[in-house]
Specification:
By secondary structure, the chain is α/β, with parallel strands linked by helices. It is built from 9 helices and 5 strands. Helix 2 packs across helix 3. The radius of gyration is 16 Å and the shape is globular. It starts with a strand and ends with a helix. The relative contact order is 0.20. The chain binds adenosine monophosphate. The site of adenosine monophosphate (AMP) has 16 residues, from helix 2 and helix 3. The site of adenosine monophosphate has 16 residues, from helix 2 and helix 3.
């Protein structure tokens, strides 16, 4: 089993790039944010709990997220998995490494797509008009970006210390050219 983590601030295009990677590489994909949004639209118990937190721009508890991840990995043993939106903090990262150790994962690669904070804001406000995501308003976007820079970005250093290779990608450019760069760098 291999694990690929697609990483970057909100609006960097990781969801779009993840979908293309799934098509191009035929790998399995988990987006914790999408999975939670599906639970919200199905009005499940999990959806009700997650919905309140997501709409305020906060993070859902590690316990809930790790439960989702363990369940997904259990069902997809032996596959290469692309993680989108997970891990979001150091604790989730430590737990991920433990889980991958237990499942005998051989390789972990991190694709770090970066864009400036102002670009995230511009792109997310534009997305708000198109997709009407309730968590895409200026106040919530700022809160989500604060959490990204305070809790999520430090994961990169943690991974580096663990000897995990980080593939840095500039998130400004066309969808196709960024995908091509990612595919080339994954082969290196
Ligand atoms: P995303 O689509 O990845 O931006 O996720 C949307 C929202 O889902 C986030 O703002 C969080 O509230 C929640 N969420 C997604 N993934 C996680 C995670 N790994 N840990 C905690 N909360 C998460």
């Amino acid at each position: 089993m291999e694990a690929i983590i697609i990483f970057g601030p909100q609006g960097c295009g990781k969801g779009t790039q993840a979908e293309l990677l799934v098509k191009n590489l035929g790998i399995k994909h988990i987006s914790t944010g999408q999975l939670l949004r599906d639970e919200i639209s199905k009005e499940t118990d999990l959806g009700k709990i997650a919905g309140e937190i997501i709409n305020k721009g906060g993070l859902v508890s590690d316990e809930i997220i790790l439960g989702i991840i363990k369940d997904f990995l259990e069902k997809n043993r032996g596959n290469t998995i692309l993680f989108d939106g997970f891990p979001r903090n150091i604790n989730q990262s430590i737990e991920l490494l433990n889980i991958l150790d237990e499942t005998g994962a051989k390789k972990i690669k991190v694709i770090n797509i970066d864009i400036p904070r102002e670009e995230s804001m511009t792109r997310l406000l534009k997305r708000a008009q198109i997709e009407k995501r309730e968590d895409d308003n200026e106040e919530t976007i700022n809160k989500r970006l604060d959490i990204y820079y305070e809790q999520t970005q430090p994961i990169l250093n943690f991974f580096k210390q663990e000897g995990i290779k980080i593939i840095d990608i500039n998130g400004i450019g066309s969808i196709e050219s960024i995908q091509e760069t990612i595919l080339n760098k994954l082969k290196e």
